[in-house]
């Protein structure tokens, strides 16, 4: 049974690596342990961490941090077209992707090397290179913290949007995701049209396309332009790519012909990294807080930056993009 610890540093369990502590902390490995720990919560604020890859602590957390350690991957059903794979919310996401690739389960290969846990994947509908969680999602189980019950959420229930779900708005802070079931294809449908995947596959000399080849191409691309959080603290993409109406995009395109954008619903999704770079932030460093030289979308901690310093830098970036382009960036990272 997991035991509550007091005044625990969150630095080792988060990828930004800033100095902050939790008043109380405990990991849990199953639903019974989670229930028992919640019984000791009292009136203390609660935070549940998975991989710790999408959070920035700007202060100590005067509450209870629970660390999701529910693991396990199993195939629970299949039909002629799909295989249904359930994974514990505390499973490492990239490890889960590699499991699927190794077993020929197609659909998540484009999401290779994204940091974080399985439980976080539907929370913000993670996506990369033309694929989002909603494309492979079947259902999830989540424990309602206040009412102490286990609920099942379908694809429709989650109301997925661009880096959004009900767990980031309507039900924020109300549930702990304990498991996620994915519907994966037995026969792949390859997605190579986004980013530099085709170029990387050619560089790799791939003659016959496979989910393994695509996974490795994505790993190569991400490794080349994104810092390893174990060496340079970061949380991946710090900002969302903003969406604008076609009218606004047309105005921006006329003023900035090289602007990078992609069709999205009835408008256009702008590349936030491009906007930030045009404002001169790429490679910027103040003390140990900076904007990564290879990808402007990533804010980094070079070792001793505080969460407050990184947050302040993000605010300056938001203000400059707003002033230059009339576009308001939103933080993708959760700020505490």
Description:
The protein is α+β, with helices and mostly antiparallel strands. It folds into three domains: about 5-70, 2-Layer Sandwich (Uridine Diphospho-n-acetylenolpyruvylglucosamine Reductase, domain 2); about 75-185, Uridine Diphospho-n-acetylenolpyruvylglucosamine Reductase, domain 3, CATH 3.30.465.10; about 235-335, Alpha-Beta Complex (Uridine Diphospho-n-acetylenolpyruvylglucosamine Reductase, domain 1). It has helices at about 30-40, 95-100, 155-160, 195-205, 210-225, 245-255, 270-280, 305-325, and strands at about 5-10, 20-30, 45-50, 55, 60-70, 75-80, 80-90, 125-130, 130, 135-145, 150-155, 175-185, 235, 245, 260-265, 265-270, 285, 290, 300, 335. The strands form six sheets. A five-stranded antiparallel sheet has the order 6-7-12-10-11. It has a four-stranded mixed sheet with strand order 1-2-5-3. A four-stranded antiparallel sheet has the order 13-19-18-17, with helices on one face. Strand 17 and strand 18 (about 290) form a beta hairpin. The radius of gyration is 20 Å and the shape is globular. Its main location: cytoplasm. It catalyses: UDP-N-acetyl-alpha-D-muramate + NADP(+) = UDP-N-acetyl-3-O-(1-carboxyvinyl)-alpha-D-glucosamine + NADPH + H(+). Pathway: Cell wall biogenesis; peptidoglycan biosynthesis. InterPro entries: FAD-bd_PCMH (IPR016166), FAD-bd_PCMH-like_sf (IPR036318), FAD-bd_PCMH_sub1 (IPR016167), FAD-bd_PCMH_sub2 (IPR016169), MurB (IPR003170), MurB_C (IPR011601), MurB_C_sf (IPR036635), Oxid_FAD_bind_N (IPR006094).
């Amino acid at each position: 049974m997991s035991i509550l610890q007091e005044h625990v540093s969150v630095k080792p369990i988060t990828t930004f690596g800033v100095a902050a502590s939790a008043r109380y902390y405990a990991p849990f490995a199953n639903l019974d342990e989670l229930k028992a720990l919640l019984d000791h919560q009292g009136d203390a604020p609660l935070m549940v961490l998975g991989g710790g890859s999408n959070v920035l602590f700007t202060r100590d957390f005067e509450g209870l941090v629970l660390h999701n350690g529910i693991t396990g991957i199993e195939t629970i059903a299949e039909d002629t077209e799909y295989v249904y794979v359930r994974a514990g919310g505390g499973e490492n996401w990239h490890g889960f992707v590699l499991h699927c690739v190794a077993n020929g389960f197609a659909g998540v290969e484009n999401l290779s090397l994204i940091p974080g846990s399985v439980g976080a994947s539907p929370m913000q509908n993670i996506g990369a290179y033309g694929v989002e969680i909603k494309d492979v999602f079947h259902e999830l189980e989540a424990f309602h913290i206040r009412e102490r019950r286990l609920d099942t959420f379908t694809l429709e229930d989650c109301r997925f949007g661009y880096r959004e779900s009900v767990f980031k708005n309507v039900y924020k802070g109300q549930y702990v995701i304990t498991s996620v079931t994915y519907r994966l294809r037995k026969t792949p449908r390859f997605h190579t049209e986004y980013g530099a995947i085709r170029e990387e596959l050619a560089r790799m000399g791939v003659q016959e396309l496979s989910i393994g080849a695509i996974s490795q191409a994505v790993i190569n691309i991400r490794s080349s332009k994104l810092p390893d959080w174990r060496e340079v603290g970061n949380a991946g993409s710090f900002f969302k790519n903003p969406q604008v109406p076609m009218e606004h995009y047309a105005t921006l395109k006329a003023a900035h012909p090289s602007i990078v954008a992609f069709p999205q619903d009835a408008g256009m999704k702008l590349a936030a990294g491009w906007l930030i770079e045009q404002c001169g932030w790429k490679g910027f460093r103040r003390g140990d807080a900076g904007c990564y030289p290879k990808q402007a979308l990533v804010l980094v901690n070079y070792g001793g930056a505080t969460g407050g310093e990184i947050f302040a830098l993000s605010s300056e970036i938001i203000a400059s993009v707003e002033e230059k382009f009339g576009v308001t960036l939103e933080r993708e990272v959760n700020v505490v």
